[in-house]
Design goal:
Bound molecules: flavin-adenine dinucleotide
Catalytic activity: N(6)-[(R)-dihydrolipoyl]-L-lysyl-[protein] + NAD(+) = N(6)-[(R)-lipoyl]-L-lysyl-[protein] + NADH + H(+)
Largest sheet: 7 strands, mixed
GO molecular function: dihydrolipoyl dehydrogenase (NADH) activity; flavin adenine dinucleotide binding
Shape: globular
Cofactor: FAD
Keywords: Cytoplasm, Disulfide bond, FAD, Flavoprotein, Lipoyl, NAD, Nucleotide-binding, Oxidoreductase, Redox-active center
Number of strands: 22
Strand content: 25-35%
Family: Belongs to the class-I pyridine nucleotide-disulfide oxidoreductase family.
Distance between the termini: 73 Å
């Protein structure tokens, strides 16, 4: 059977970029088609943000119960059961996926399940289970996302090598694992698996883990990782992976010209992500790519073809879900002729390590490079009463402020609730608030958020609790 459809907007990829664009455009009155080759919700919902955070809940609960005695609670034997945790995670994922599917239906988005191909600047084709479909569209949004990157090192294809996709469906956890790449995905998974008892060795090429973060923040995370029994080796490159005689794998590394060997039952590859451009056929369709191989866009998210936009992981950047969704808003606004463009300084980053880290706005270096004279103010979490009740006192709030105007340019939060607390600073940065605005806000007591208040008071030397 052959079908032909004509729409205002056709979107390739149903992740947090694509499906958000579809709903937003449909709500604005456009006739929308969405082509997804796999499961609705993309990497984020099925293999990324949501499943990892569901497993993190299990891991954190396990670790909390193990510490119950500290809080005056008697517990007998406590044991993690990873395959049950995976089932719990699958339940969360399918509830959310059903939610997204019904939202798309409710907004009359025409969904096609099949691999989409960009044929020309106005045509996408796909083959669903029962039809060959051709969709003509005035506008197109490419939102095809990314997949795990595999380096060309010897042994990369051995059975012991797995990716974040595989971790999320493992029936039995290995006793030990080498994690190649100490970035956000590698560290988040390391903390989760460590709590389930896996012996973890992280190897990282740069000189610190989480190299994209504020140095002070990554030092706090490193210290905590080591305290929890995660081994970290930095400044090393994996040279080769060889299967070990009795199962497992040995990873050979070089550090300061010295050869090291690290053993793990499994090897998790988490060195970054690769852009999904297969369905786009950039050469034929004259879609320009960046040097890294991402789809190149301008600040309005237009590709080199005027009516084709691209959003989310496939255009590179921080490669975060909320970034993809915000880009969806910006691209749809531009399609609707409501001028909008991206300001990447306003995208917060959230790392769900233990402790959590979140950042927004300019870093000290970026602020200085832009010519600001900056003053930072830091409040240590250990001095906050609510934090103390959690027994997890590592962390801090740091504000980066323009000394001339007192305007808040950025900030970092490390510790309990950091990925929630950061939004207070995100609002301040977005709305160009002054430190004075935070000082004149009344914060409820006792709350972790009071640390933001104290950091603001501290800017004027008026902090109370240190
Ligand atoms: P994707 O979510 O990758 O979706 C793209 C979709 O396009 C996929 O469903 C794919 O099947 C489909 N597709 C590709 N090609 C075609 C084609 N030719 N035809 C039809 N369909 C196609 N980000 C956060 O912000 N917070 C987190 O906590 C977080 N945790 C993560 C944890 C892990 C383990 C991983 C791997 C990622 C995590 N991320 C997180 C990143 C986040 O998942 C991505 O940034 C986000 O999913 C990008 O959204 P997207 O819509 O651009 O692409």
């Amino acid at each position: 059977r052959e079908e032909k459809h004509k729409v205002d907007l056709c979107i390739l990829g149903g992740g947090p970029g694509g499906y958000v664009a579809a709903i937003k455009a449909a709500k604005s009155g456009l006739k929308v088609a969405l082509v997804e080759k796999d499961k609705m919700g993309g990497t984020c919902l099925n293999r990324g943000c949501i499943p990892t955070k569901a497993l993190l809940q299990s891991a954190n609960l396990l670790s909390q119960i193990q510490k119950a005695q500290k809080f005056g609670i008697q517990v007998n034997e406590v044991k993690g059961n990873y395959s049950e945790a995976i089932k719990y995670k699958d339940g969360v994922v399918s509830t959310l996926r059903n939610g997204v599917e019904s939202l798309l239906k409710r907004h009359n988005v025409k969904v096609f399940v099949g691999e989409g191909k960009l044929i020309s600047d106005r045509v996408i084709t796909t083959e669903t289970s029962d039809a060959k479909v051709e969709i003509s569209a005035e506008h197109i949004i490419l939102a095809t996302g990314s997949k795990p990157k595999m380096p060309a090192i010897q042994g990369i294809n051995s059975r012991e090598v797995i990716t974040s996709d595989d971790i999320l469906s493992l029936e039995n956890l290995p006793k030990s694992m080498v994690v190649i790449g100490g970035g956000v995905i590698g560290m988040e998974l390391s903390f989760i698996l460590r709590k389930f008892g896996v012996e973890i060795t992280v190897i990282e090429a740069m000189d610190s883990i989480l190299p994209s973060l504020n140095k002070k923040a990554s030092e706090v995370v490193l210290k905590s990782a080591e305290k929890q029994g995660i081994k970290v080796i930095t400044g090393v490159l994996a040279q080769e992976i060889a299967s070990a005689a009795n199962g497992g794998a040995v990873v050979s590394l070089t550090k300061d010209k010295e050869e090291l060997k690290v053993y793990g039952e499994k090897v998790l590859m988490s060195i970054g992500r690769e852009f999904n451009i297969q369905g786009i056929d950039p050469d034929k369709n004259k879609i320009e790519l960046t040097e890294q191989g991402a789809v190149k866009v301008d600040e309005k998210l237009r590709t080199s073809v005027t009516n084709i936009y691209a959003i989310g992981d496939v255009i590179g950047g921080y490669m975060l879900a909320h970034e993809a969704s915000h880009e969806a808003f910006v691209a749809v606004d531009n399609i609707l002729n409501k001028e909008n463009s991206m300001n990447y300084n306003l995208i917060p980053s959230a790392v769900f390590s233990d402790p959590e880290v979140a950042q927004v706005g300019l870093t000290e270096k970026q602020a200085e490079d832009k010519g600001y004279t900056i003053k930072t103010s830091n409040f240590p979490y250990g001095a906050n009463g609510k934090v103390l009740t959690t027994q997890k006192t590592e962390g801090f709030v740091e504000l980066i402020v323009d000394k001339d105007s007192n305007r808040i340019l950025g900030g970092t939060v490390v510790g309990v609730g950091a990925t929630e607390i950061i939004h207070q600073i995100a609002i301040a940065v977005t709305k160009e608030l002054l430190v004075d605005d935070i000082c004149s806000t009344v914060f409820a007591h006792p709350t972790v958020s009071e640390s933001v208040f104290e950091a603001a008071l501290g800017y004027f030397g008026e902090e109370i609790h240190i």
